[in-house]
Write a structure and sequence with these properties.
CATH topology: Creatine Amidinohydrolase
Helix content: 25-40%
Strand order of the largest sheet: 10-9-11-16-17
Distance between the termini: 35 Å
Radius of gyration: 17 Å
CATH superfamily: Creatinase/methionine aminopeptidase superfamily
Number of strands: 17
Number of helices: 4
Shape: globular
Structural class: alpha+beta
Largest sheet: 5 strands, antiparallel
Bound molecules: 2-amino-4-trifluoromethylsulfanyl-butyric acid, cobalt (II) ion
Length: 257
């Protein structure tokens, strides 16, 4: 069921989004050699609680499994849902993708960003640029009257123009009163099922995950970490977006700016 947001809801969403973006800025500063994914998880968890909020992911249940961390930290070939483990130590050259959800006063915001550590290859720089471009192209299509498939195809077109592949299966989603609300927003057109209209007062988490070499993904035996099937690297950017009568309004912040 799609949940449309009131003006009061929007105030709460803005506050959750502000905290989530602030958390990603902390993460950005921490992506250094020798720092571990667990360090990021702890720092962001502490920051979120300090704001009178809770990490949306902590104890979140997906398909009967409970997630025990406050963030997802995915590196290199990991597409999404990478565990923020102590053993995941940053070492250049590396891509570090941090995904965080914040729950404050009844509202969730969800945002993710890709950070590079050291001198990553030119093709990986291009991957970052393409995935970010796909995010903003998808947001541009997120306006009343358009369809969910317009958003999906925007992601697909940008990825393919660079010779990259939007990951299969993984999707964006409605967000707000729940972390994951309807509608589902596939990143890959082959996952489009029933299409729907984009309506004013929706809030959407739009999150392209784009791979260098294949759309195919595999879930590791930890039950969470999703990796590319060919080992190629992947990038991920996510904004929480409010759909007004006039078009999309991005509630989370661009962390490169
Ligand atoms: N990566 C997901 C999203 O952005 C949320 C993670 S759910 C968790 O929608 F359980 F893994 F935390
Ligand atoms: Co997210
Ligand atoms: Co999300």
């Amino acid at each position: 069921m799609v949940i449309l947001k009131s003006n009061t809801d929007l105030l709460g969403l803005r506050e959750a989004a502000r905290i989530a973006s602030e958390a990603l800025r902390i993460a950005k500063e921490m992506v250094r050699e020798g720092v571990s994914a667990a360090d990021i998880d702890e720092a962001l968890r502490d920051f979120i609680f300090s704001q009178g909020a809770e990490p949306s992911f902590l104890n979140y249940e997906v398909e009967g499994k409970v997630y025990r961390y406050s963030t997802c930290v995915s590196i290199n070939n990991e597409v999404v849902h990478g565990l923020p483990l102590r053993s995941k130590v940053f070492k250049a050259p590396m891509l570090v993708k941090v995904d965080v959800g914040v729950y404050k006063d009844g509202y969730h915001a969800d945002t993710a960003w890709t950070f590079s550590l050291g001198k990553v290859p030119p093709r990986i720089r291009t991957l970052m640029r393409a995935t970010k471009e796909a995010l903003y192209a998808a947001i541009e299509e997120s306006r009343p009257g358009n369809r969910i498939s317009d958003v999906t195809y925007a992601i697909y077109r940008v990825a393919r123009r660079y010779g990259f592949y939007p990951a299969e299966t993984v999707t964006g989603h409605g967000v707000g009163l729940e972390l994951h609300e309807d509608p589902v927003i596939p990143n890959n057109p082959k996952d489009l099922d029933k299409d729907g209209r984009i309506r004013p007062r929706m809030t959407l988490a739009i999150e392209p995950m784009i791979n260098v070499g294949t759309e195919r993904i595999i879930t590791l035996s930890d039950g969470w970490t999703i990796v590319t099937a060919d080992g190629s690297w992947s990038a991920h950017y996510e904004h929480t977006v409010y759909i007004s009568e006039d078009g999309p309004e991005i509630l989370t912040e661009d962390i490169d700016g």
